[in-house]
Design a protein that fits this description.
Largest sheet: 4 strands, mixed
Strand content: 15-25%
CATH topology of the largest domain: Nucleotidyltransferase, domain 5
Number of domains: 2
Order of helices and strands: EEEEHEEHH
Shape: elongated
Number of strands: 6
Distance between the termini: 48 Å
Radius of gyration: 19 Å
């Protein structure tokens, strides 16, 4: 049987643990990253920093275990709920990661609710300001010729 790699991409850090089939820990690693608060109600993270933390913690847990990465046969990922990352046409990040703490979409949410737009219109998801779909109109309203946000 193969190994299980568990990756938790959290709000302030990424943690990774490698388990054997009996769920014994073979290796683990963690790396913190910062959240920026550039304006009141805004909470952003650098997507490249978060991605690098994921890659480094995976490498660290496997390295600590002394096992071959090819022995990993199962992967579980957990990430922060209600975060949003806008992508450009080439699939590269076009915005910072807008975390669950970010409330910049509250005004859009209020306007949409007053206009009668709700969960039946937007993918039947829980409709509140931290829900990812709320960032889409917020971002589209703020596009500029020099980029987003």
């Amino acid at each position: 049987m193969g190994l299980l790699l568990a990756v938790d991409i959290g709000t302030g850090s990424c943690r990774c643990v490698l388990y054997d089939p009996d769920l014994n820990r073979l290796g683990e690693a963690a790396q913190q990253y910062a959240t920026r608060y550039p304006q009141p109600g805004w909470a952003e993270q650098d997507p490249q920093t978060v991605f690098s933390a994921v890659v480094q913690t995976i490498a660290g847990a496997i390295s600590q275990s002394g096992r071959n990465p090819r022995d990993v046969t199962a992967l579980t990922l957990d990430g922060p709920l209600h975060s949003c990352l806008g992508l450009a046409a080439d699939k590269r990040p076009a915005t910072p990661v807008l975390t669950w703490e970010d409330s910049r979409a509250h005004a859009v949410t209020r306007e949409n609710r007053q206009a009668g737009i709700g969960p039946e219109v937007i993918v039947k998801a829980l409709y509140h300001a931290q829900a990812q779909q709320q960032y889409i109109p917020w971002i589209s309203l703020r596009k500029t010729n020099s980029g987003l946000l």
